[in-house]
Model the fold of this input.
Amino acid sequence: MSKIAVVILNWNGRKMLEKFLPSVLEHSSPVAEVIVADNGSTDDSMEFLHTTYPTLRTIQLDKNYGFAGGYNRALAQVDADYFVLLNDDVEVTPHWIEPVIEQLERDEKVAIAQPKLLMYDQRDTFEYAGGAGGFIDRYGYPFCRGRVFMTLEQDEGQYNDACEIFWASGAALFVKANVWKELGGLDDDFFAHMEEIDFCWRAKNKGYRVEYCPKSTVYHVGGGTLPKSSPFKTQLNFRNNLAMLYKNLPKRHHRRVLMLRMVLDYVAGVKFLAEGHPKEFAAVVKAHKEFYHWHDDLRRKRNTLTPKEVSCVYTGRLLFDYYLFKKNKFSKLNKNRIIKQQ
Done:
């Protein structure tokens, strides 16, 4: 029988653990072992766990390594066939693990998967961080079935089909342990944001598939660590998106897409200024400076990869489709512009 480890990465999340850990323990046992890895918390998270759940396995890291570095260090200490990366602000449901594992086991090339993610406080609405599976457009803008930019759809069963996707949400990401190790886990330098998309892209470049499993549903609060409006979050998103593109784009698209994306980033920065958000503009500028400083490291990383054309990339222009042509739902996009599996 396969060993499954559900690993929750905690950072000052006492309130989230108190609220959501009971559902995880109730609905994961005896199928999987639940582990909490602490990312150098300064609150009483660990004291709470040791007192309330004395038999629960915990892994204590010496400082906050971010989402990427924290999971890399935690999972290096876990022996399992499947890892489940689960946010501390996720409520799971009965039998949420089994259908995803069954889907992963049907094909050795299917390496990563996610369940349906709905909002915790609007339970009939797809959640921003993953919806019904992630996609990406030709310029690196991520979106989901159920969420395009800031437009969220209600779940009316329209995405109840299992399918291949481009990326699985880090809020509830299932991955085969051997593939995790083969890829070297997440990119530590990302710290947080976009790391799971980069990871899935690297997996696709290796010939693996990422899939969405609608038979499993979880409810995600979102924004538990950083607020939804945060210059630091803006900085991480813009910086890491450029880094992800640099590492993974096929050679024939590399220079052109990166140059255009940088221009579009500054357009977004000017929009921040016009809307009265100078700190967000400064975050975009800082993101680009850090990207330039990363250049040599990114080039070395790219040289270890084999970037190629991969499936589930939307070759249209999502910005124009969304803002000019009001295509604010996945169902409105031209499906012929999504690259099929090779």
User: Anything to note?
Assistant: Residues 25 and 95 are 12 Å apart (CA to CA). The two ends are 32 Å apart (CA to CA). The mean pLDDT is 95. The chain has two domains: 4-220, 231-306.
